[in-house]
Write a structure and sequence with these properties.
Blueprint (H helix, E strand, L loop, with lengths): L6 H9 L10 E2 L2 E2 L2 E2 L1 E2 L8 E2 L2 H15 L19 H8 L6 E4 L2 H12 L8 E5 L4 H13 L4 H4 E4 L10 H10 L4 E7 L11 H10 L3 E5 L18 E5 L12 E5 L1 H4 L41 H17 L1 H25 L5 E3 L11 E5 L3 H10 L2 E2 L1 E3 L3 E4 L8 H12 L4
Parallel strand pairs: 4-15, 7-8, 7-9, 9-10, 10-11
Antiparallel strand pairs: 1-5, 2-3, 6-12, 11-12, 13-14, 14-17, 16-17
Helix pairs in contact: 1-13, 2-10, 3-10, 4-5, 7-8, 11-13
């Protein structure tokens, strides 16, 4: 791509951006009465302006209808999860009956592993990336212990080669093949939270299946970030949060994907709850669990409507923009960020960092860079200049140029601040 480190180039790119109008539909915090350059959407996305209205509507329904709001009003609560189905399916490349919105991320991962991590005989190990987000590490460790197994021997963690910062796909596939007869589950993130590496989900899934194992993914940093085709990739299960790239508020609800080969089979084991029972007989209150077909059959409780209303406000924006258009802008915006970071370190001797995120196609809207001894000072310097980034111990700064609301001008502001840093 042909870039130029100048404000005029950034302005021209913003003027040509067909998605630029979406920025005005978000609430961007201020610094010295100017909008922040907010690069922390991979941790917590910004609030859509429509969010308050969506929540207010549900509060008014509650005030007007009381308990009858479950069956009356604009979006009856009994059917609330259905209002997400088609949009969520388009978001992650799934069939409508393969997705549901419910609970929170780690809760859903435990529910999914209860169904799909079923160790038996030699086939009892879980293979995952080393240095995964702690929630994933803790969930996997506790699942292994729950089955009376030993995390030291029954969890295999794949780490980058010495001197490297992200995993090579061939090393992941080799490890799966090497452990084939021992594997019950291959469990990876879609995007590695620390390095920003986007994993090759279809290749990992195919390798897991050749080994006779289940393939599951935590898509917390991938949903709303990457173009996903979970059904066609034959992924067995996945879950994701909605408060990062999906802008649905702190602690927001989670999405779940379960491939139809499992979800449409009522014999697939699961932990059952009332809201997963077949809808047309749910209120008969009889013994004997009859699961709703598809991912909806994994629901436990009725919808947390106020939290889900916030998610719907954002999901409507994603459905309007379309993931293909967002992905195309993301690729260009992230490449521009990559260019600016490299140009700044060439121009300013006080800067001491190196990018550890792999190049396309192995990244989404994130670049992480490894800093030197002045890394925390650089992070604080950026904050003082109204540029919000994410510090990760011991010495990494993460930047997420989110295509829904970040501009090319935001990236240029970052570049200017980098040039003004002195150690």
């Amino acid at each position: 791509m042909d870039f130029e480190f100048s404000r005029s180039w950034a302005n021209a790119a913003d003027n040509a951006d067909e998605l630029a109008g979406f920025r005005s539909r978000f609430l961007i915090p201020l610094h010295n009465n100017e909008p922040l350059a907010y690069f922390c959407g991979n941790s917590l996305g910004l609030q859509p302006k429509a969010t308050a209205e969506y929540i207010r509507e549900e509060l008014e329904e509650w005030a007007q209808w009381g308990v009858e709001g479950h069956f009356h009003g604009k979006r009856p609560w009994f059917s609330y999860h259905h209002f997400f189905t088609d949009k969520t399916a388009r978001l992650v490349g799934a069939l409508p009956h393969e997705v549901v919105v419910m609970n929170n991320l780690t809760v859903n991962l435990h529910l999914l592993m209860a169904s799909f991590y079923r160790p038996e005989g030699k086939r009892r190990r879980i293979l995952m990336e080393g240095g995964a987000f702690p929630s994933d590490m803790y969930a996997v460790e506790s699942q292994v212990r729950f089955h009376g197994l030993n995390p030291e021997t029954d969890i295999i963690e794949i780490v980058p080669r010495e001197g490297e910062f992200h995993l090579r796909t061939e090393d992941i596939l080799d490890a799966i093949e090497r452990e084939a007869e021992n594997l019950a589950l291959v469990f990876f993130s879609g995007v590695q939270y620390y390095s920003g590496q986007a994993f090759d989900i279809p290749a990992i899934t195919a390798a897991a299946h050749r080994a006779g194992a289940i393939a599951g993914f935590d898509l917390a940093h991938a949903a709303g970030n990457l173009l996903l085709n979970l059904h066609d990739w034959n992924v067995d299960f996945a879950a994701w949060c909605t408060y990062k790239y999906l802008n649905s508020g702190p602690g927001g609800v989670s999405g779940v994907f379960i491939h139809e080969k499992h979800g449409l089979d009522p014999a697939t084991p699961r932990l059952a709850g009332w809201w997963g029972h077949k809808e047309d007989v749910r209120f008969q209150m009889r013994k004997g669990y009859i699961p709703e077909p598809g991912a909806a059959g994994w629901q436990l409780s009725n919808a947390p409507v106020l939290s889900m209303a916030a998610h719907l406000a954002s999901l409507d924006l994603f459905d309007e923009a379309g993931m293909e258009a967002l992905s195309a802008k993301s690729a260009r915006l992230t490449a521009w960020l990559d260019f600016v970071l490299r140009e700044a370190v060439l121009r300013n001797p006080a800067l001491d960092y190196r990018i550890i995120t792999p190049p396309p196609p192995h990244r989404g809207a994130q670049i992480s860079f490894l800093t030197g001894e002045n890394g925390k000072a650089l992070f604080d310097h950026l904050n003082r200049h109204g540029i919000v980034t994410d510090w990760r111990e011991p010495n990494v700064i993460r930047l997420a140029p989110v295509p829904m609301y970040n501009s090319f001008g935001d990236v240029y502001r970052l570049g200017e601040a980098l040039l003004g840093f002195s150690s």
